[in-house]
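Collaborator request, handled under Task 6.
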Amino acid sequence: MLEVADIVRAHGAAFVRAHAVTPAQHAVLRDIVRCRTAALGGHVDVCDECGHAEISYNSCRNRHCAKCQAVPQARWLTQRLARILPTHYFHVVFTLPSELRALALANSSALYDMLLACAGETLVELGRDRLGAQLGVTEVLHTWTRELLLHPHAHCIVTGGGLSLDGSRWVSTRPDYLLPVRVLGDLFRGKFLARLVAAYDAGELRLDGAAAKLADAKNFARLRDKLYRNKWVVYCKPPFGGAHEVFKYIGRYTHRVGLSNRRLVALDERGVTFRTRGDATVTVSPDEFLRRFLLHVLPKGFVKIRHYGLLAASNVPTKLAVAARLLASVTPPTVAEARVAVDFREVLLALTGVDLRRCPRCGGNMTRHPLSILDPDQPFAALPPPDTS
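Structure tokens returned to the collaborator:
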């Protein structure tokens, strides 16, 4: 099967030489080509019965690598399922207007932080003002379209109600209605633009590249006024399934990368072909493919999964616990229902039915032994150094 790593091996070095790649982007390319190869070492599983051996190489664990997300996602789900409330939930998506994409490209950390903070604050504030309750919110940043173009947006899973402000009761919403989306959009717009203007006035934004024209205060003022006039898109609907399905649903978003290997179709003389929606495909040059792929590398240390309201860390042992007690009339998940595999071998068994702990030849027990780095100098393990100028 074709992988992103194959494209990086074939064209990554030329791309790095031709473009100003950041250290973070360079690290992603380096890790992807080394992932699950001898360059990172690994382990050998040996059958106690027949002596059959299976070599497995280590993962790079880079959060932008398509091959390294199953185990972190499973661990995240284990933690989230312990905090789920037996109520209905909503899926809310906040999207940045297209006019801000150039500015977001030059100031990804600042604008993505504004996006997540303003989305969370908007939901919590409207829950308090409209419902008289504190909602629980988990949000995840995504930055891409199916064509790998820049499209920053925040996926939020929101409790269908909240803890009353005096902490005495659970205030439920209708199963099919959370809050008015127009009001959500207007409040989100106001909060975001207030932060953006403050950052601009303080000289905290980079204004180069595609955003260079905004260095002129008149151009920025025109953009600001246009954004205040426009309607900002907010999408809201209940997610499918009951309470247990909610975080499994959002789990598909938390550790997703811009493009999975299974969406790749071909790498040939025409370029890179990958699926968009359904059977539709798009073909771009390898250079353009890598450019688009690297648009979605997040700044080092950026936290893309955040929690607000009842699910904020400070409220989990207090307000969330109170809400859970108030909702206790609904049977909570049992330990067996809430358990999610966290070992890679268990994840693979759950997904494919293949048990790596059993010998594929005789069914005996496989014992794991560490394996040293076999070939650290293989050609694809290194790329030209990043441009740090």
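The cover message to the collaborator said: "Confidence is low (pLDDT under 50) at residues 330-342, 374-382. The domain at 85-258+296-332 is CATH 3.40.1310 (Replication Protein E1; Chain: A,). Please let us know whether this matches your experimental observations."
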